[in-house]
Queue: 2 jobs
Job 1
Amino acid sequence: ASGAAAAQLRRRLESELEDIRGAGTWKSERVITSRQGPHLRLAGGGAGIINFCANNYLGLSSHPEVIRAAVEALEKFGAGLSSVRFICGTQSIHKDLEEKIARFHQREDAILYASCFDANAGIFEALLTPEDAVLSDELNHASIIDGIRLCKANKYRYKHMDMQDLEAKLKEAQKHRLRLVATDGAFSMDGDIAPLREICQLAQKYDALVFIDECHATGFLGPNGRGTDELLGVMDKVTIINSTLGKALGGAAGGYTTGPKPLIDLLRQRSRPYLFSNSLPPAVVGCASKALDLLMESNAIAQSMAAKTQRFRSKMTAAGFTISGKDHPICPVMLGDARLASVMAEDMLSRGIYVIGFSYPVVPKGKARIRVQISAVHSDEDIDRCVEAFTEVGRKHGAL
Ligand code: PLP
């Protein structure tokens, strides 16, 4: 019987995989044989590929000081903890990093997770009860959506960055004990930035708290790279921040929540992905800690990224392309047609430029695009080569 069940399962899985291929939404993974960085080597021979699709905004993933800090932490504190934090898994470096994160964001305390996905999975359930309400932007990241699914609060979804709709939902939610507005600080598909000033004003008017996911903002948005709240002047109005160590802050892995101390204390007691998952490995802690040191010493890296973003956006716009979002290193080149996005991305790779096309269901129908992500470690020449390749490929395929 178990043989028959296994055979049945295999047939079902194969048919599901076939459906994914048939729908044209199959995700294949290119294999990189070098470090993460602006120039990559790919398995199968591609060398000297210029990479425009990592979240390595500040280029710290392969920064020599970040790597050295990881090696030192590995040697001093070992490969890993073989334990969750509250049993036998808290080292001095975990406490130091939490203190540093809180200081960086000017918050009372911080708690580490294995990922920001886990931080988002843990917070809503630990904080909200059926007496409370959560109001979430419809385009929030999948991990926020999943985290909200896990909690028993009353759920409201407002239209993307639509303040009229948020206000209507806040009015409706007045009957609940506590209201939490949850939004990405910067949205990764469009490179657009949440209107946090307006969100915080509405939150004040309707007595709500504000939560932001800063995965695509921490380290580089705002004058000192603190994030969207700093950029928009509302650092004292946003109560809870979740973010990742796996993008701009060294890119190794890990996530966190930072905010009021009693909230962080409660998460240590109640948050399931924290309580029931292994501690962050020392090498990973070492990377993030060094990345934060570098950013707190100087904002030169973030400024260099901003200048390169500006160069790419203005040259592409001058060439006739439409780039979504504003002033963000996520630069979606809007093409509309799904096939056009996929064929152009392939053609870009054949010219040594690694970019990825996104189409439905990842983005709405008719809004296919190639997403370009700028990093502080791209040279001006890298950026110009990318624009040239886009111009050639765009002309060839009728996009210009
Ligand atoms: N939130 C947002 C907005 C993200 O883009 C991501 C990563 O893609 C995550 C959360 C998850 O972060 P992590 O990779 O640390 O799990």
Job 2
Amino acid sequence: MPGVQFNSPIKYNPLMHIELDQAIQLLQDDLVIAIPTETVYGLAALLSSESAIGSIFTLKNRPAKNPLIVHIADHSQAEPLMRTKPPFFDKLSDRYWPGPLTLVVPASDQVPSIVRAGLPTVGLRVPNHPLTRALLRDAGPLVAPSANISGRPSSTCPNHVENDFGENFPVLSGGSCDKGLESTILVFNNGKWELGRLGAIPREELESFLGYSLNTSSSEKPLCPGQHFQHYSPKAKLILSKAPFSEDVVLGFERREYPNAKRVFVIGPLGDPEAIARNLYHVLRQIDLEGIKEVHVDFDFDQEGVLRTVAERLEKAAHPYASS
Ligand code: TXA
Ligand code: MG
């Protein structure tokens, strides 16, 4: 893995890796499997299988008030799931699907209430991973939250899924995720698109595409219920810091000096924000695997583009119970 100085060989247990046809069979048997996407791995169930959807909440220990994104193969699978189509939906989806953009729109009655956590809306996205798109074309729409225990860092490779759900958990194995950060979520609200969650597509890029600045959630009134809950946190305590580091364990960047640091977890070079995004959850998970209790994060960087999302994830990871 580029720019990461620790040694963490990824060992795959061949037993847990399933092929496309087994994936379809397990889903049709009302079971849950893990699937690859370009952002993070998901825990998937058929939209039509309420029992498997219930199991997703149990497996993840996910609050029932947190709705699930519905993954679809293409536009044609979106139509029956929407009650009405908001303005600019086609332009956004033509430009960004398949890709890391989730669009929250009014839901039709084909979306079970458990998926929407009782809301009148549904989040839709077409993931950009060939295996999962083939699966979606054959099996139909799949609900899928990130494949991690609720509150913990997301999974960006099969090994992470195994760490959270056990080595016999069935994973459709599609390698390491390209983006390493969850999709950006736009919510159609009060007649315009608003930013429900920062994600792999930078905010600036969407604002220039839409031609207006995006309102974001307030902590009192989040656009995505998920923003209420703990997120992305390792067990280790993270301390965000712009000051020089001394005897600490540091999470920092390639080509920066951390004199006297006891240990440095290098997340990547600041000149390559995509590499940093890809490594983020891997490094957070590695810190826990090594049993480290406290890490000082070098928070002295320009928080623009993808690095704005990285910074937001680190803030949430450091302050697990803040609600903004
Ligand atoms: O990249 C991703 O989006 C990944 C991959 C697997 O596709 N999925 C993911 O799902 O991050 P999850 O469940 O970890 O996060 C979904 C977020 C939550 O914050 C949830 O509240 C929000 O989407 N969400 C889902 N449906 C919604 C709705 N109808 N209205 C508002 N927010 C919604
Ligand atoms: Mg998640």
